[in-house]
Amino acid sequence: MKRIWKHPEEPQNAKRYWRSVAELDRREDFLKNLGREFPEGDTLTEDERENSRREFLKIMGASVGMMGLASCRRPLTNILPYTQHVEWMVPGKSLLYATTMPRSSGATPLVVTTHEGRPTHVSGNPLHPLGGGIDTFAQASVLDLYDPERSQKPLGAGKELSWAKANELIAAAVAQAKKSSGGSLGIVAGATTSPTYLRLLGELKTAYPQVKLFQYEAVGGEGQTAANKEVFGAGVKPFVKLGSAMRILSLDCDFLGVDPVAGEPISAFTKHRAKEAKTADMNRLYVLENRYTLTGGMADHRKPIPASLIPVAAALIASELGDASAKALADTAPAGLKEWIAPAVRDLIDNKGKAVVLAGSRYGAEVHALVASINNALGAFGSTIELLQGTQAPEMGGFAELHAAVSGGQIKTLVSLTPSSLYHDAPDAQAFAKLITEKGVKLIHVGMLKNKTARHAALHIPAAHYLESWGDASAADGTYSIVQPMIAPLYDGASKIEVLLALLGRKKLGPVEAAAPAAPAAAGAAPAAPAEDAAYTAVRDTFASVAGSLDEKKWNFTLRDGFLKGSSFAKASAAPNVAAVAGIVAKAKPAAAPTDDSLEVVLTVDSSVYDGRYTNNAWLQEAPDPVTKLTWDNAAWIGSVTFRRLGLKDGQHVKISVDGVEIEIPAIEAPGHVSNSITLPLGYGQKGVGVVGSGRGVDAYVLRKQPGMFVLSGAKVEVLPTVAELAITQDQNTTEGRAVFREGTLDTFNKDEHFAQKIGMDGHIPENISFYKGQVGVKSKENPDGFDYAKHHQWGMTIDLSKCIGCTACIVACQSENNIPVVGKDQVRKGRVMQWIRMDRYFAVPKWGKNEVAQESTYAVDNPTPEQLENAEMVHQPMACQQCEAAPCETVCPVNATVHTDDGLNAMAYNRCIGTRYCANNCPYTARRFNWFDYNKRNPLIETKVAGITMNNLYAGPLGEKKEDESLRLQRNPNVTVRMRGVIEKCTYCVQRIESAKILQKQVQRDSKNFRVPTDTIKTACQQSCPADAIVFGDLADKKSAVVKSKASPRDYQVLKYIGTRPRTSYLARLRNPNPKMPGAENIAVWSKNQF
Amino acid sequence: MGNFFPRWTNWLPLKLAIAVVFIAFGVSVGVAYYFTPKYTRVGYEPTQPVPFSHKIHAGQLGLDCRYCHSFVENSSHSNVPTNQTCFNCHGPGKGNIRSNSPKLAMVVKANETGSSIPWVKVHKAPDYVYFNHSAHLNRGISCVSCHGKINEMEVVRHDQPQSMGWCLDCHRNPEKNLRPLEFVTNLNYKAGDLTRADFYKGLLDKKIPAGEIAKTIGGEGSKADNLDQLLALAEKTYGKQVTQTEVGTQIKKHWQIQPPENCTACHR
Fold first, then answer.
1. Which of residues 952-991 of A touch B (CB under 8 A)?
2. pTM
3. What interface predicted TM-score (ipTM) does this complex get?
4. Are A816 and A856 contained in the same domain?
């Protein structure tokens, strides 16, 4: 008899987690694909099927005929050994180097995996004082190195130049600068913490006293810098100790996402989010913001307020804490805000010395001044914020000064070293570009992308990637961190340090002149030492001044560790000058809240392209936005109230006009977004940067007329009839709305720490109900789990939902480690995204309270109101293959391509898979991916012309371009098969790492019998990348391992436990710590009103 | 109605059926033999750009395999040596052995130009197979088990099928190929050449109880307390000469050799 499995009914009155408004409304397009593992459109109509069958037979006939000819010969392959042995190089083994990714926000300490000299994967440097996990941008940066469309040749007004010519032009500019002692030379640097870079800028100033230095970042925090300088003093750097802060209030500061604060890493914050025992303390996060950010998602209390009101909120908090200067501004606060802020501030005061208030870096000086005053009143300085005395940077002007200097006509040569693209992202960029041309300024641009600035500059110099060049950076606490090259520049690019050295006349840019052919190693003498690299020398000089002397031993240790031990900044001596706050605040103009006719537009940093600099990175483009799940595009985020008032459909175009500038952009409904506010992610809409980034999204920079302006008011919205085709992954790979996410409050936990294990049916599941019989997991008396724990490792994983911030770094890490292809926007729309781990994002609205539903109500009719959607909660849940012990996928594979291993992995033999996709259809976690096309060989991002018809390259079949890009191939991990068309793939717990660890153990043990890999030595790529330390992986058979401890947590639960798949990955339920005195606290994270 | 078909056609279907059976059998046998690595790979003996003779170097001169393939115990890949390795003996100013030989011309030239010698690959695992040399060499599998007697080959020849079935044969019964670690690169090794006393003393030195060793020799009932008793037991069981089964079984048992048969062991 056929047994039809029915999932248990969800209890009435339970909170429902949903991914999109379409799901909530049970819209038809959502329901259509709900039960389908592979959405409609992948299948063909009856006619098409018949035609394609004939085509297939025809082609097959021809191929069979040719097969005989093709297979006669054995392809000749060569082994090309090194002629001279390379130090440390063992062919077949990876080699790790510690280095640092220098960024505008500081230093990201890294360990880079190289294979035969090719960097293939980056991960955080665990030795570094601020090391650990890394974010998405750092994780994806290795792909930029191999970007085939990177700038490779110097350009002069868009035309290729030789390096000799480029050097000539630089020399001419230097000669001209010398005449005016630098007066005609301007240099635009990006925000940097590199001591060598800053030192060279200083030397430039000494060499040419009149040289003008500017700092420009498209999304820099000018207000913050100005306020900090006035309140804390020049060179003083506040260092936020997230690990000491038990109460944090964020004023639109996405410190867990794209607006990091200088301070302890995110893991220090998440450490206090997990709780295994009732006695442990937990931190509490309050967030005020206009849209959902990752930080907002982690908040215990969050209130969506317009960004224009953030200064008012800051003033309100300050005046609650007794700052009289804030009174005037605070009085303009709208109703409701004070009721929310007052109990929060009370809580902060109660935790004096353990509390901190953070503000978004792009708010004005008044907000940051107020926050300094607030933190001072909360006793944060010295406890949760350390003031460090940083190195003195040379005096640099901002964009306003740059604009003035250019229009004043003093500057003849402008060198742009900033990673931002002046012609694209500068305030009123078009006018600025015109001004530069009009004034006859020669723009020398240094960058990795052929972006607008590069193409129009008088001279463009291809920049070297940080993995190709020498450099350094100071971490947030000042630790001197080294940037060391591990591959020679692929395209002879020059690092910014080298460009400065060229301006100082100490270096020629471009390829190193071919050294004289090495004398035949007749005498066997050591080859002549290569001429000392100027950048290397410069970095070593800086090192000598930081370390006190050029101690070779210390230098070598620094290279090995990636940083110089004990080189952090000293504490600043002066106390913050709170008296200065009043002066700054007095200058602030009170802003009015947006209204229905006059909306506000908030320009934000994008989680995929940052300010636009990562636009040509395909991994980042395809990594879904953590909040909207949008890939390959940007869109206007509009809150439900406004969205519905305007009568919009998802993806419908709107025309947004601010001060006479108009842009047309698709709109999406964003739950949790405040009304009358529109969020526009920046950095999109660039042209000519390459097939990945060109023409993606809409440029929102055009709306910005003033530097430092990110909140624009008085916007008008006009609804357009067209609807854009956006690639949003939120409704793909669903678990059909089954209750997979569990959370509770601290209170729930304290009442019953095992609450998560009792939600739903879990408390009532009988023993051994498994529907699927495991293949090796046969239970016996000696072997109660069905696996041999004595003889084999048993791998398992936990994911702590309390710690997971939802940043998607794991997705990119997995992509980099496991050779996962990018499929392009068109394929993403069809639900064919290949990422092995996905970040499920759910919203939730409680079903009780004012809108309490009757018992007999169904899903379809208890829709929350738009106002409730505005206050929706947001949670994240990473989901990959759960490595079920009794795996449903294995039993349906007709060819045994997916089977279980003795150590509990659900193995996938790609070469055996015939692509029936039965396994994917039978996976309750929808964790399997199918290669619909040969994504690795056939570039899915380009168009091909076949018989006059332009089509996506994938669909051109054998007529399409079939070539793997040589440079992208270099990035591949040689230890993982590159999959071809027609096979299923999925997470394997990084089996290549497991196997190499097991083999290494054999190498070490040789003829002894201890084959067990030492405790916790294997880390999966996702675990390694996780900045929140949310993922724990290890051997369940090793009682000392972290994963065994983690699985012992009372919060541990298995997703869909009742189907009896016995997953090896389990989750730790999320905890939230609401303040009972806050409005609406009773609804937060309560799973069901009558919980058990 | 006349007979359209002559009488002999009555048997035609049967004859045809029999013929088809024979042909099918023949094709199957043919495919099984000619289309499998046993035939397609074994015996492949490409001409190498440099006429390097393993017979002279590894055979006559007795160079250890690891002198040139230096990382074979540490890496998945058995490296092909750099010119520097060749020049340790042949290099002018070093060993200077036959440094003017025309056979070495390509090596000398490669050293000057820095371009690699394009050695022709003999043993090639498919891309989805992850074979690891170090895992085998460190656990008592000799080079000879997979590559044959390289020390007797003038030009390297593909000696074993190296097919999946062939791999699994050994993974299921590793005792046929296991040997003490010191003989891993000794391509002439035969278990019979071992001194039994030394072998068992080696095991006892590893702190393996004599009783355990005895059980491995003669089954659960066997007992031994010291070396002499072990030797007596072994002689009774295996005869005067040390046998491969004897060595292999002991090593498999006491080094905990569990060759993986999981897909993930080789396919990732």
1. 975-978, 988, 991
2. 0.90
3. 0.90
4. yes
